[in-house]
Amino acid sequence: MAWRSIETNEFGLHEFMNWTKQVGTKANMAVNLGTRGIMAAANLVEYCNFEKGSYWSDLRRQNGQEKPYNIKTWCLGNEMDGPWEIGQKTAYEYGHLANEAAKAMRAVDDSIELVACGSSSMDNPTFGDWEATVLDQCYDNVDYLSLHRYYGYYNDDDPKELDNYLGKNVDLDQFIKGVVAICDAVKAKKRTDKTINLSFDEWNVWYHSNDADTKVKPWQKAPHLLEDIYNFEDALLVGSLLITLLKNSDRVKIACLAQLVNVIAPIMTDDQGVWYQSIFYPFMQVSNFGKGVALAPNVAVETYRSREFPEVPYLDSIATYDQKTDELTIFAENKNQKDSLTFNTVLKELNATEVIEATQFYGYDPKQDNRDGQMRLQPLTASIDDNQITATLQPLSWNMIRVRVNH
């Protein structure tokens, strides 16, 4: 109903779980606390995670899945503060419902982790009060609080708007730190040792398809909706948002794009096959190589002022250290539209021995998309001298440097 389209449910829970197994990922499942409720939530956990001998677990076995799926992470509804939601709740109503649903779900499987709904946008008038009230009701029975944030580019006539657009990671950082502060305030109020971490389970760029979606005839089967075609400037913003998530990974323990294919997605499909959007490249690299421990850098770089943000660093960067492979991966973005940056990284407690791989994503017009399949990662020259990693970052570029290290 929410998208006024016909959903056949041909691809349901079993098909989705089979897909997660094929691609090597894990499900982040949500229960319906809008139009359904406590028992439906508990029944779904029983269907998915209970081995056998109960009504719902035996139904799963009858439907072809003998072993339980053992889904670990469950969201207690979705965007329940949103006026667009069917079954929208006040913060108190939702917090109470989430707490009771959590108790019922954990009665079925006490090993699951639960995510309470935070604000669906920092722009909502209830932001802040929503988080505090919800957590006051359900703090003891949940593990995470969710955040959602999408960004758009709305001032094409202003030549300075690109600087502002690329600075929107500052907004993301402020959002995260604000929600962390609220979580910790409730923690202090309750005099508990338990810490609530964050699940940033919806984020991306989203604005290209807005006009087209208003013209779609309602109640079609699988209409083309939210099919944003991303350009190079979107890829740069997504890269910076990824860096921001890594910088806050001490509290952001879950972060994911809500959709991966066609719908505001890095991968597109059509009758001709599959192709990568511009945002695929930074997302792919951080997903594959941003592993281990995030190392917050001490960065010395100039800043600029934009329409919304008084200080945006020209350089955005983070490093991750994978202890399993002894690899250090540096992600760095130059937001300067005209000038290259000489990038120097001095390691303090790790010794760099060799550059494994270095790539750059640059040289495209900010408005260029990848429908013609021309976008590619390109080699980047990076060197190591006296335990210092050096590279030249081109204007408007996303860069990754992987280095072998030892202690």
Strand order in the largest sheet = 1-2-3-4-5-6
Number of helices: 10
Secondary-structure element series: HEHHEHEHEHHEHHEEEHEEEEEEEEEEE
**Stretches with pLDDT under 50, minimum 5 residues:** none
Q: What is the arithmetic mean of pLDDT?
A: 96
CATH architecture of the largest domain: Alpha-Beta Barrel
Question: From the structure provided, what is the oligomeric state, counting identical versus distinct chains?
Answer: single chain
| CATH class type of the largest domain | Alpha Beta
Inertia-based shape:
globular
Q: How big a fraction of the residues is strand?
A: 25-35%
Helical amount? 25-40%
Structural class: alpha/beta
Number of strands: 19
Distance between the termini: 56 Å
Based on CA atoms alone, the radius of gyration comes out at 23 Å
Within the CATH hierarchy, at the fold level, what is the topology of the largest domain? TIM Barrel
Structure description:
The chain has two domains: 13-289, Glycosidases (TIM Barrel), CATH 3.20.20.80; 295-406, Immunoglobulin-like (Sandwich). α2 packs parallel to α4 (91-108), α4 (91-108) runs parallel beside α5 (129-138) and α9 packs parallel to α10. It is globular, with a radius of gyration of 23 Å. Strands 1-2-3-4-5-6 form a six-stranded parallel β-sheet. A six-stranded antiparallel β-sheet has the order 9-12-13-19-15-16, with helices on one face. The longest helix is centred in the middle third of the chain and has 22 residues, at 169-190. The mean pLDDT is 96. 29% of the residues lie in helices and 25% in strands. The protein has 407 residues and is an alpha/beta fold.
